[in-house]
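#dry-run=false #mode=assembly
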Amino acid sequence: MYKDPSAKYASFRPVELPDREWPDRMLTSRPIWCSVDLRDGNQALAVPMNVSQKLELFDALVKCGFKEIEVGFPAASNTEFTFIRRLIEDGRIPDDVTIQVLVQAREDLIEKTVESLLGAKRAIIHLYNSTSPAQRRVVFGLDKPKIVNIARNGTRFVKERVERLKGTELGFEYSPESFSGTEVEFALEICHAVMEVWKPTAENKIILNLPDTVEVAMPNVYADQIEWFRKHLNNRESAIISVHTHNDRGTGTAATELAMLAGAERVEGTLFGNGERTGNVDLVTVALNLYMHGIDPGLDFTNLNALCGIYERCTGMTVPPRQPYSGELVFTAFSGSHQDAIKKGLAEWNQGNRPHWDVPYLTIDPSDLSREYREIIRVNSQSGKGGVAYLLEAEFGIELPKDLQREFGPIANIEVDRMGREVTAEELKAMFWHEYIDRTTPWKLEQFDANGSGGVCICSAKVWNGQEYTLTGEGNGPIAAFVNALHNGGALKFEVTNYREHALSTGEGASAISYIQIKVADGTTRWGAGVDTNMELASIKAVLSALNRV
Ligand code: KIV
Ligand code: ZN
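#status=ok
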């Protein structure tokens, strides 16, 4: 790398927009969405999708609610052409969905493109040519007027063929490709030239798509470019301003959102940010960013995991684990303090007293996307007691008392550390069983009976401690009677300092669990736990579990 990057790289010339309005605006409604998965996304794949993969992804996009879908570049390959014909001839395009096709400003390509659309109910022909200084110089070797002529002629070639698509509700989109790297004045000039040929009206608007083909500046600069363009555009009511961002500087989402503030009414992008180089903007993220602010995005990602599966199968790409909303790890907290806060936040939310979602660390309720709560918390060696307790409760209905959580948390952590990996809820339960429930040495219960009257309970117990003992004791309840019986039998002296019990969910093989904390003479406290189909016996077992752990 250069010590002085300015010797190689120039800063970006900002747009002059002293009265910019977008910073004071808020997003209050959704844009028109256009998926370009089957074109921009597809052309960026090492192995482009075949017809059946494109059909499957098209159906999934329709199911999400996309009403405009760029289905391909029909003049570019046979697969693309065949796919579009299949869509039309097999009647797979719902009446309220418009397909869009991309084409360069060349007459032969436009001819083939029109042919691909014959019989479509609704379609948009998307014409583009590149306009930035670098493209004009390096690729075309043409001056500005000649670049304008390319766009003007391309528009004319399309217009001359409108008759051939008589039965089709036809829209027209023009993109000055590399818009964000183009002088705004020139981008405006070329769009005006296209409009002069196409002659859009307020009823039949042209789509002017202003691509951030390559992110060359910060998102605020792109927003300025969009606002400047919007304010200087003639015949404004006859145009829909559309944006199409890529993610070269990692700010595709920000650029899109600021562009919407600046007046963009339509947004092109892909699922999960597939697309050339660093990808197109991820429309799932932009849509769910609106949703988490209470705005209906008009796209339904209720079954996001299933959508990820279809996307991965069709494109061969993977959704990165930290991709906003859809990544495998986005509803997972590894840190103990995060887990604790999430647990408390979810508990508060589940009480139903808060008007709006406000759970720490979770910007959105995972269940809205059919993501499961159990994915939220995993336990590894950095986790605290909160995560352990959450998993035991969420998975098995085991509600550890707070103080027992404090005792068991570090015990579980030592074991997790030894294993050196994340552990499952089953493994945590096995650790709990090993530490508490299965603690039957030196004391093991063999039989217990208790009878009471007048506030006095008398018990008789058979216990094993190297040999069988029969113990008897008296107290104000079965637990107190059993403690006295143990003392009568010579066991270490202790008192019961804490007690909780609850029913266990079905399927746990026992219907009750009891937790008991005892304190011995030197002040040491220990928890014990017992399970049984009988609540009383669960408590008696818990007493011995605690005693066995001293
Ligand atoms: O990124 C881009 O500029 C494009 C155009 C063809 C719209 O994909
Ligand atoms: Zn693109």
